[in-house]
């Protein structure tokens, strides 16, 4: 056989556009923010290879399969206010134009979230998949990796060949999920399987803080879904999605997605079974007993430190924009010492701090700017001990290998608290937030975090206690406090505890 007769490598298009939209936040996630964290073309492949991300797993699998990667972009924009229509159009119009110009493609791999909203779209990721399908046609398989907190219905993924969700929260298996999607793609292209999908919704919503898959009964449900797939004699993949309850959309809440080789009725039975199990456990999934008020949390934290149990994590979980100030204010007023408050998002305060030389005493009004529920600004007085841009490759079990972009960073040492202010929003989930500024977790008795579940992968083994503190911000533990307009309350727990008709 001549070289000209040799089969060409499979050509696989890759793109990722990820954002978890808090629809109650008025401030939109801008195109400028997305562009500040994007990776494009060949640089995306280089930057994301080997990372614990969906697209990282896709890249690794494509390279193992010796496929030709046709790279577009990867923009992971965090959890914040909805994506602006301008940003959505910029990326997805660009993707569609690029797919049209790319020449023949054998498959498409998309790394999406599943809870992206824009002012004009309640299910933006559905539109993305549909528009890609319209370009590549019905014969090209499209596989999608989705976040465990995706809000889905059958229509959300109807245009995909198959879709796959992270199994765990903290999302320590994002890379593996990308591999699952890519493995299915290559097995489909080789003719080994013909995947079909089934999706069911149990009508259950939980706050993000209770979606941690180390909590029972969710832990057992997730492990059972994995075991069912592993024990199947034929190709089977089961994803349990907890949904994202701070997106006010019609398909909010838990869903179960089953991908199976050929047998749609079997896929539907499995999806129905796990959906029924989630519905039956709906009350046990909400752990209100784990939640403290600010005053209770501080009292518990001080008592544990007095017993020599340190560090204690105080988790301001209701903060959705990394700028809530309830615990910062309370720590200052209570005179707590040896407190770390990493990654408070406040671009204006950072800009003001950078007008001063490192080592100078500064007075800044920080945080609480994203909405009236964020707690309002707090006056911070202390020494400026770091000022300037900061980015790094993450070392922790959640962000592993990913580049964390913080923009300009100002670190203030009050003598009792160490507060790091960032110009780009990011969530502290491991001790990179301290080691990158020359500090150690051993330096502190208290650490104030704003994560929901992802911090647990590092801080559960590294801390003496985790105290979940509820505040009036836009991510409360009691979902009935939020002004939903699109969520169907009938037969949706916790708004309606009755069984579906």
Notes on the protein architecture:
The chain has 501 residues and is of the alpha/beta class. The protein is built from 13 helices and 18 strands. The chain has a 9-stranded mixed sheet, sandwiched between helices. Strand 15 and strand 16 form a beta hairpin. Helix 3 packs across helix 6 and helix 4 packs parallel to helix 5. The termini are far apart. The model has no long low-confidence stretch (mean pLDDT 95).
Record the SSE blueprint.
Layout: E1 11-21, H1 31-37, E2 39-40, H2 42-48, H3 54-64, E3 68-80, H4 85-101, E4 107-112, H5 124-136, E5 142-146, E6 162-165, H6 174-189, E7 195-200, H7 218-231, E8 236-241, E9 255-261, H8 264-280, E10 291-292, H9 294-306, E11 312-316, H10 326-334, E12 339-345, H11 347-353, E13 361-366, E14 378-393, E15 403-413, E16 417-422, H12 432-435, E17 446-449, H13 456-462, E18 465-469
Helix pairs in contact: 3-6, 4-5
């Amino acid at each position: 056989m001549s070289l000209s007769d040799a089969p060409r490598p499979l050509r696989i298009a890759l793109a990722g556009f990820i954002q978890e939209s808090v629809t109650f936040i008025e401030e939109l996630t801008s195109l400028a923010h997305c562009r500040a964290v994007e990776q494009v073309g060949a640089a995306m492949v280089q930057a994301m290879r080997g990372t614990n991300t969906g697209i990282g797993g896709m890249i690794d699998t494509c390279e193992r399969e010796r496929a030709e990667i046709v790279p577009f972009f990867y923009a992971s924009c965090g959890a914040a206010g909805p994506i602006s229509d301008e940003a959505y159009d910029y990326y997805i119009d660009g993707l569609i134009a690029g797919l049209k110009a790319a020449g023949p493609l054998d498959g498409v791999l998309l790394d999406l979230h599943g809870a992206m909203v824009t002012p004009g779209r309640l299910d933006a990721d559905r539109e993305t998949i549909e528009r890609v399908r319209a370009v590549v046609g019905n014969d090209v398989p499209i596989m999608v990796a989705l976040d465990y907190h995706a809000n889905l219905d059958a229509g959300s993924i109807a245009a995909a060949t198959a879709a796959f969700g992270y199994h765990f929260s903290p999302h320590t298996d994002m890379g593996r999920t990308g591999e699952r999607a890519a493995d299915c793609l290559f097995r489909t292209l080789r003719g080994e399987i013909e995947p079909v999908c089934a999706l069911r919704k149990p009508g259950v919503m939980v706050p993000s803080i209770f979606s941690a898959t180390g909590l029972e009964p969710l832990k057992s449900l997730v492990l059972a879904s994995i075991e069912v797939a592993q024990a199947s004699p034929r190709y089977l993949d089961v994803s349990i999605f907890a949904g994202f309850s701070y997106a006010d959309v019609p398909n909010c809440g838990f869903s179960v997605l089953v991908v199976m080789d050929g047998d749609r009725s079997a896929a539907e039975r499995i999806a129905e079974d796990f959906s029924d199990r989630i519905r039956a456990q709906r009350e046990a999934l909400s752990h209100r007993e784990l939640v403290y008020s600010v005053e209770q949390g501080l009292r518990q934290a001080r008592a544990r430190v007095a017993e020599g149990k340190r560090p204690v994590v105080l988790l301001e979980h209701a903060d959705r924009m990394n700028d809530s100030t309830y615990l910062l204010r309370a720590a200052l007023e209570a005179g707590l010492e040896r407190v770390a408050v990493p990654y408070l998002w406040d671009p204006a305060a950072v800009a003001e701090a950078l007008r001063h030389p490192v080592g100078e005493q500064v007075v800044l009004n920080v945080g609480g700017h994203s909405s009236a529920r964020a707690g309002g600004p707090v006056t911070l007085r202390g020494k400026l001990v770091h000022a300037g841009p900061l980015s790094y490759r993450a070392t922790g079990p959640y962000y592993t290998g990913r580049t964390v972009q913080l923009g300009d960073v100002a670190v203030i040492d009050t003598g009792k608290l160490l507060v790091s202010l960032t110009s780009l929003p990011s969530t502290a989930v491991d001790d990179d937030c301290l080691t990158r500024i020359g500090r150690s977790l051993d330096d502190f008795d208290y650490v104030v975090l704003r994560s929901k579940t992802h911090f647990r992968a590092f801080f559960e083994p590294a801390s003496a206690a985790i105290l979940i503190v509820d505040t009036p911000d836009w991510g409360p533990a009691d979902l009935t406090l939020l002004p939903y307009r699109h969520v169907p309350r009938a037969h949706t727990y916790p708004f309606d505890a009755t069984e579906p008709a």
